[in-house]
Amino acid sequence: MAKVEHDLTDEQWFALMEAWGGCAYCGGDGAGLQKDCMLPISRGGRYTLTNVVPACASCNASKCNTEVTVWLRRKRMDEAGFLVRQAEVARGIFGPAAS
Fold first, then answer.
1. What's 57's domain CATH number?
2. pLDDT of 76-88, one tens digit each?
């Protein structure tokens, strides 16, 4: 596998955790959040500000290497709500031009 460039900084990770306020998927509290790639690394994703969300261990393990919208549908979670919130978080971190 070719070397993949990951550019998520610690500052960006902390900003993501603060913006989400818990697990991006289930809303669980912020204890032990993990970096989850919405598009998994095994499918071409990278650890970048636009591809990473904080996830609890349970959601991260359940999602595994599934693309986020496919997993949300399979789990019957609020896909539209997640995508709207993800856009809001992006706007909050990047500013209005991010959406």
1. 1.10.30
2. 999 999 999 999 9
- Closest Cα to residue 55, out of 35, 31, 76, 83? 35
Domain of residue 23, residue span: 10-89
Specify the pTM: 0.86
What is the number of other CB atoms lying within 10 angstroms of the CB of residue 94?
12
Q: How far is CA 3 from the centre of its chain?
A: 21
Look at the chain and report how many structural domains it folds into: 1
Asked if the structure places residue 79 within a domain, the reply is yes
List, as one string, the DSSP characters of the chain: -PPPP----HHHHHHHHHHH-S-TTT---STT-EEEESS-GGGT--S-TTTEEEE-HHHHHHHTTS-HHHHHHHTT--HHHHHHHHHHHHHHHH-GGG-
- Whether 98 is in a domain gets the answer no
Please say if the pLDDT value at position 95 is more than 90: no
